[in-house]
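so my prof wants the structure for this chain in the tokens format not the other one, which i didnt know existed until like an hour ago. anyway here's the sequence
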Amino acid sequence: MRGELRTPGGVREDRDVRNQGGPVRKAVFAGLALTLLTTACAASQETAAVSQDYLVFYPPGQGGAATDAVEAVGGDVLSEDAQLGYLVARAARLPSGPAIVGVMPDRPIGEVARVKPAAKPVARPAAGPRRAAVKDEPLAGRQWDMRMIGATASGSYKKQIGNHKVLVGVIDTGIDGRHPDIAPNFNRKLSRNFVTDRPKDPKGKNLDGPCEHKGCKDPADVDDDGHGTHVASTIASPLNGIGIGGVAPGVSLVNLRAGTDSGYFFLKPTMDALKYAGDNGIDVVNMSFYVDPWNFNCPANPADTPAQQSEQKAIIAGMTRAVAYARARGVTLVSAIGNGSTDLGDPKQDTGSPDYPSGAAKSRKIDNTCLNVPAELPGVIAVTSVGPSKRKAVYSDYGAEQADVAAPGGDTLDTGTSLKGAAREILAAAPQKALRASTSIDAKGQPLTSSVIRECKNGTCSYYQYLEGTSMAAPHVAGVAALLVARFGKPGRGGLELDPARLESLLYASTYDRGCPASGNYRYSADATHVCVGSTAKNGFYGNGIVSALKAVTIPGT
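here's what i got, hopefully its the right format
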């Protein structure tokens, strides 16, 4: 979504091809709510008259000194997360000093009831759907992406479809847990919503829209945007004779919602989701977003104010710690690399940050010290996108150091394929309510665009939508990772567990090498040429190769 689905100017990656996973690149950023790094705060961090809440990150063991720094500016510490090393503080001025790594604005609008980690694993079915008489789903003919990676009835489904003991967390805008092609694999007990929607932004402009539930907090089986549902469907839509099949149709889906209805992914809810994943036995997490409001986080960019620099330092520190926390507890982390058509090893300019509040974006020169978060963090598997011909998608970010693996994410501009228009994108489940809100279907439920497919069976209709983006590529990798957990995982917290380092090694062994084009680059248009650097085994367009579900279920254990 925003964080991951944004377009070069800060829009979602999957819809406008800027999201990390495809649909949207709206990074849900600072915490529960919308970051309120306003122009006034940025211009005069020392004289801000109104107190507000901040996330104050400190070095290891410096919580006491950080508390002193907050109190020195007349602020109060509201709470502390010693595991991730930050304070939630209320102050009228930004605290500073050697005990402060970074400070990020935070507002109570996203305040969520604290969820205590389950004392013991939640009971769930012993196994996923049986593999007997596996057949392709009704819409399988439209799934060129699954054929590319061998996730078909004649391919990986014959060997392994996953196991309900494997838990895949989707950190996104939510999951429509009642969708007929998701419900059988949806783990309602473990699913959580870490955000509270906000009807309007600080300028009074419409943001998430009117509240639909008490306290503006949606239930954990709701997705008013559709991005998270699409991602979840690609990972694990079941083989139930309805619609499509996912990469791992027998695993469990856990909604770890950190994205707002408007598609922003702020820091606090995103960290909360990662920490929850680590505490509750989640095996694999998909992150198709970037953390708002910065597409690129630069610790010391002269184009930014001191307050903005501190905010970006806070995002880097907070997410680095949250990712490390989850990985140390057995969570394998998969992220869309981004939809900015940018070589992340040599970025030049960021024109879409900060993307919140609206109208705050500016153009600034950047370099390789600036990070796309979470894709460029240690321990995160960054996924590039390819179209039907296996050409790197025109929108997909890339980089010799940054790209880890590639997967189908769709590309309407792809050449070398007989597919046309939306059929070159990725088809997956969509919430009916979201389609109605976007006027993609009419009052009778009939699609108004070729990008939406309706399938009815026994009086029940399901909807599917074509989307493209690295947001769509990442869930293919998360699904393959889930298959590997099903094969090689051992009994543990949540059901099965597999060390992330070993899973990553197995994942790379499950890819097909794809070298740079013979010319060394792809020339998409007169003003868009992307240069590929690296070997056939590892390069900036495809990383370690294009993932394969079929190889994942057949490679020998190591």
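also thought this was worth mentioning. Residues 52-105 form one domain.
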